[in-house]
Amino acid sequence: MNRSPVILIVDDDEGHAILVRENLVAAGLDNTIQHFSDGQAILDFFFDPGARQRHSNGQSYLVLLDIRMPKIEGTEVLRRLKADPKLRKMPVVVLTTTDDSREVERCYELGCNVYIQKPVDYDKFAEAIRRLGLFINLMMLPSGSGH
User: Which of 13, 85, 96, 131 is the most exposed place for a label (fewest CB within 10 A)?
Assistant: First the structure.
């Protein structure tokens, strides 16, 4: 079991991505963290052999996925990741401002592992991410849950 997954933040809001990174580190995570600013970039990371950034075989990954993004929306990214037999077990945490119950239902149907609504208040947002970091510290992931 690989207890140190690379954390992939997929969020078009640079400020949110920085906040997520800083608060995961504040929670004591020392995992490698990579940021992707749109859905196409994360799909290229996993599926395009010619992409500049590529996944590593045998490495475990944890995806923190926003829903509303340019190019390819998060729900489509989630669908494609979970449809791939090699990526199906990779944990995907939907981390978004969207609180529409139909969207929550759809994400779980597509295979997300956890759905977290980003609090609008800065302090609550930071606290939610720190708590997520503590949770990530306790997670056990299958080896190579990212090809």
Answer: 85
Instruction: Indicate left, alpha or beta for 86 from its phi (over 0: left) and psi (-120 to 50: alpha).
Output: alpha
**How far is it, in rounded angstroms, from Cα 53 to Cα 7?**
14
Residue 134 predicted with pLDDT over 90: no
- Decide: 146 and 61 in contact? Cβ < 8 Å: yes
Tell me what percent of the residues of the chain surpass a pLDDT of 70: 94
Answer for the pair 120, 97: CB distance below 8 angstroms, yes or no: yes
Q: How far is CA 6 from CA 94, 103, 110, in A?
A: 16, 26, 22
Domains, the chain, ranges and CATH? 6-138 (3.40.50.2300)
- DSSP per-residue string spanning 87-129: TTTS-EEEEES---HHHHHHHHHHT-SEEEEPPSSHHHHHHHH
pTM tops 0.85, yes or no: yes
**Tokens coding 85:** 């037999």
C-alpha 104/C-alpha 51 separation (Å) is: 31
